[in-house]
Structures are given as structure tokens and as C-alpha cells.
Design a protein that fits this description.
With about 290 residues, this protein is α+β, with helices and mostly antiparallel strands. It has 2 domains: about 55 residues; about 210 residues, Glutaredoxin (3-Layer(aba) Sandwich), CATH 3.40.30.10. The protein is built from 8 helices and 6 strands, in the order H-E-E-E-H-E-H-H-H-H-H-E-E-H. The protein has a 6-stranded mixed sheet with strand order 2-1-4-3-5-6, sandwiched between helices. Helix 3 packs across helix 5. The longest helix is centred in the N-terminal third of the chain and has 58 residues. It holds the Pfam family Thioredoxin_4.
Length: about 290
């Protein structure tokens, strides 16, 4: 009888040991699952935070270059960069007003959307620059340039349109008085469509040859120079956003020329363009 009791006790002890081992194993597995799920939760939260930050950052407006207003730069007598004739609602500027720069009260605004890779833009400049500059110096118009980038596909991956518009923003930010000379130089040395465009070094040389000090700091970010602004493409996002805004407003080609906000087709004949401008100022009657 004692032997039977001893055998029963051994079986009971064995069962208890097995139960304890199973319980311990179950506890380990539960702990491991908690750690695993906690880790997954942390990763999910981290990913969610990163995605949220990226969305917020992408939604933020790109920092504009100094001396740009509403995606463009407005030129008055003597190459002075001024505020637009009619400041857009909600925007502010420390630039002089057109009146302070000697612009006539009845002056017209001539707005030109340009892409520095665009052959038609170059032709427009070569055809009309003399007439437009004369009207600017007379105080008859404020000439507003809005560089956009719609022809990147024609520079073999070089994104010349965007990079040239970025250069323009860098220079206008740092040395607005050089805007006119730079734009003229960019069109004069425009690369052919289908080529690889200009390197950063070549773009900076174009600027330097136009009288730009590429070592000068930006007004919007004194830690950057024109040179670093070009190599870092500091205003690339701004160019992208400005281009999209132009497309959304109906611009579908360049040059896209407006006189007091109304599109004109008189872009190939300086005399016809001048007459249309003078009609807008009231100096020529319809």
C-alpha cells in the first residue's frame, strides 16, 4: 500500500512540475507578445509622427526670396525693384512703392511669365526689350517678371528651367538691382532645348558676368550666399509652388503676357504691344 501511495505521489509531483513548467512557458510567451506588440506600437506611432511631420512640412508655404511679391519681381525706372502697382491682399513688402520710384500715377503693369529654357521667351525679349525698357524709364509701366519652370523635360534631366528660376530668385533676393541684367544674360546664353542645360558653375558664371557678386549673402538668410543658394537650390520649392500657382491661374505657355491683368496677343510686334500698353494707361484712346 505504501508503494502505491509513493507511486501516486510521484505522479502528482510530475504533474505539478509539468503544470508549473507550462505556466512558466505561457508567462514567457505572454511577456514576449507584450514586448512585441509594444514595439510594434512604438514603431507605428513613430511612423505616424514622421508622416504627420512630412505632411505638415509639405503643406507649409515655401519661404519666398526677398524682393519677390506674388511670385514675381517688379521693375521700375533705373532698374529699381518696387512693390506691384496693386499689392495682393494679405501681402506686405518693404520695397519702395512705384510712385516713390517715379512711376506715373496712371502707369500700367506689364506682367511676363517666363521660362528661361523657353525659346519663345528669348524671342519675346529680343523683340520687345527695347520698347519695354523705354516705357519703364518713362515711368509709363511697371515691368513684372514671373519666372516659372514648365520646360524641365527639355534639359536631359538637368532641370534647367527650375535651376535657372532658382538662380533668378537667389540674385533678386541678394542684389535686386541686378535683376534686369541677369534676366537679359540668361536669355542671351539660353541652352538649346534637348541639351543638358547649364551646370551650377556655368549658371554662376552667367550671373557673375552680369555683374552679380556671387559671394554676397542673401537678405532672407544671411548664412547663405548667392553661390550656396544656387548649389543648394534653396528656392526650388518656391519655384515649384509658383509654377503650380501660375498653371492653376490659367497660364499654359510662355511667354504669357498680361497688361493690367489681361492677356495680350501682341507679343511679336513691339509697336502693336506699345499701343496696347498706352491704351491701358489712357495715353492713347481706343
Amino acid at each position: 500500500m505504501a508503494k502505491d501511495n509513493s507511486a501516486a505521489e510521484k505522479r502528482n509531483r510530475a504533474r505539478e512540475n509539468a503544470r508549473q513548467i507550462a505556466a512558466a512557458q505561457a508567462k514567457k510567451e505572454k511577456t514576449a507578445k507584450i514586448i512585441l506588440y509594444s514595439g510594434i506600437g512604438v514603431v507605428v506611432v513613430a511612423v505616424a509622427v514622421i508622416v504627420t511631420l512630412l505632411v505638415v512640412q509639405s503643406a507649409r508655404p515655401a519661404n519666398p526670396p526677398a524682393n519677390y511679391v506674388a511670385g514675381g519681381v517688379s521693375l521700375a525706372k533705373g532698374g529699381t525693384v518696387v512693390q506691384p502697382m496693386n499689392m495682393p491682399e494679405g501681402e506686405e513688402s518693404s520695397l519702395p512703392t512705384p510712385a516713390e520710384a517715379g512711376v506715373k500715377e496712371n502707369a500700367a503693369t506689364v506682367t511676363v511669365f517666363v521660362d528661361f529654357q523657353c525659346p519663345a521667351c528669348r524671342a519675346f525679349e529680343e523683340t520687345n526689350a527695347s520698347t519695354l525698357n523705354k516705357l519703364v524709364e518713362e515711368g509709363t509701366i511697371v515691368l513684372e517678371y514671373k519666372p516659372i519652370a514648365i520646360l524641365d523635360r527639355f534639359s536631359n534631366g538637368n532641370e534647367y528651367s527650375t535651376r535657372a528660376a532658382n538662380l533668378a530668385a537667389c540674385v533678386v533676393d541678394s542684389q535686386p538691382e541686378k535683376a534686369g541684367a541677369l534676366f537679359e544674360a540668361l536669355f542671351a546664353q539660353q541652352p538649346e532645348e534637348g541639351t543638358s542645360g547649364r551646370t551650377d558653375e556655368e549658371l554662376l558664371k552667367v550671373a557673375s558676368d552680369a555683374g552679380v557678386d556671387t559671394s554676397k549673402a542673401l537678405n532672407s538668410d544671411p548664412e547663405q550666399t548667392v553661390e550656396s543658394c544656387v548649389t543648394d537650390q534653396s528656392f526650388k520649392k518656391y519655384v515649384t509652388n509658383s509654377t503650380q500657382e501660375a498653371l492653376d491661374s490659367g497660364v499654359d505657355a510662355t511667354p504669357w503676357v498680361l497688361i493690367n491683368g489681361k492677356q495680350t496677343e501682341q507679343t511679336g510686334d513691339p509697336q502693336s504691344l506699345a499701343i496696347e500698353i498706352l491704351k491701358a494707361t489712357g495715353e492713347v484712346q481706343n
